[in-house]
C-alpha cells in the first residue's frame, strides 16, 4: 500500500480476504490465493486453488474476493479456479502456521515435493506426534480423524488435557 495516497492494490486487498472456514487465516496465508493481476483496463483477474476440488467454501471465497475488490474500487473482477497443481498444506505461509497455532489449531507438518502424476492415496495412520499448540507437549491423542472441516482432525493433549484441532497434511 502506498501510505501517502492511501490506495490499496488489488493484490493487497485480495491477500487480506479471510478464509470462510478458517477465518484466522487469509486466503493468502492458506496458500489458496495463487495470483492477482490487474489489466490496463482495470479488470482484475484473481486465481485461486481450493484446498480440494469439492471445497464447500469455494463459492463463498469467490464472492468474498469479488465483494472486497468491488468495495475498494475494482468493479470488474474475474475469479478463476485452477486445480493443477493441486493445493498442498506446504503452501500455508509461515505467518499462517503461526496464526493457526496461536488460535489453538496445530499446523500441519511440511511434506515436501511430490512426484508428478495422480495424488497417491495414503491409508497410513496420521503422524504419531502432533505437538499441542497450547502447551507444546508431544503427548497428544487423536480423538477423531475429522473435525469441523474435512481438512482437520480432533486431538487432545495428554498433559494439559485440552482438546485441539490439527490441520492434516495434504
Can you characterise this structure?
This protein has 170 residues and is an alpha/beta fold. It is 19% helix and 20% strand. It is built from 4 helices and 7 strands, in the order ααββαβαββββ. The chain has helices at residues 10-15, 27-30, 58-71, 94-102; strands at residues 33-38, 44-48, 77-81, 105-106, 140-144, 152-157, 163-167. β2, α3 (58-71) and β3 (77-81) form a beta-alpha-beta unit. It starts with 9 loop residues before the first helix and ends with a strand.
Task: Briefly say what this structure is.
The protein has 170 residues and is an alpha/beta fold. The protein contains four helices and seven strands; from the N terminus they run H-H-E-E-H-E-H-E-E-E-E.
Distance between the termini: 33 Å
Alpha carbon gyration radius: 18 Å
Give the number of helices. Answer: 4
Element string (H = helix, E = strand): HHEEHEHEEEE
Strand content: 15-25%
Spans of 5+ residues with little confidence (pLDDT < 50)? 1-6
Which shape, going by the Cα principal axes? elongated
Major sheet, described briefly?
A: 4 strands, mixed
Number of E-state strands: 7
User: How does the helix and strand content classify structurally?
Assistant: alpha/beta
Helical residue percent?
A: 10-25%
Q: Could you report the average pLDDT, rounded to the nearest whole number?
A: 88
Order of strands in the sheet with most strands: 4-7-6-5
Secondary structure layout plus pairing:
Layout: H1 10-15, H2 27-30, E1 33-38, E2 44-48, H3 58-71, E3 77-81, H4 94-102, E4 105-106, E5 140-144, E6 152-157, E7 163-167
Parallel strand pairs: 2-3, 4-7
Antiparallel strand pairs: 1-2, 5-6, 6-7
Amino acid at each position: 500500500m502506498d501510505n501517502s495516497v492511501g490506495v490499496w492494490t488489488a493484490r493487497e486487498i485480495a491477500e487480506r480476504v479471510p478464509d470462510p472456514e478458517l477465518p484466522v487465516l487469509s486466503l493468502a496465508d492458506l496458500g489458496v490465493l495463487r495470483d492477482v493481476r490487474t489489466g490496463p483496463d482495470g479488470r482484475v483477474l484473481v486465481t485461486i486453488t481450493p484446498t480440494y476440488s469439492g471445497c464447500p467454501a469455494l463459492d463463498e471465497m469467490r464472492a468474498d474476493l469479488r465483494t472486497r475488490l468491488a468495495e475498494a474500487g475494482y468493479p470488474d473482477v474475474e475469479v478463476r479456479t485452477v486445480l493443477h497443481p493441486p493445493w498442498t498444506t506446504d503452501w500455508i505461509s509461515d505467518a499462517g502456521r503461526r496464526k493457526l497455532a496461536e488460535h489453538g489449531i496445530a499446523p500441519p507438518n511440511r511434506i515436501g515435493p511430490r512426484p508428478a502424476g495422480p495424488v497417491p492415496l495414503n491409508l497410513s495412520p496420521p503422524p504419531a506426534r502432533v505437538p499441542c499448540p497450547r502447551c507444546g507437549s508431544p503427548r497428544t491423542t487423536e480423538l477423531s480423524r475429522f473435525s469441523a472441516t474435512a481438512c482437520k482432525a480432533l486431538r487432545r493433549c495428554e498433559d494439559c488435557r485440552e482438546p485441539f484441532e490439527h490441520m492434516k497434511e495434504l
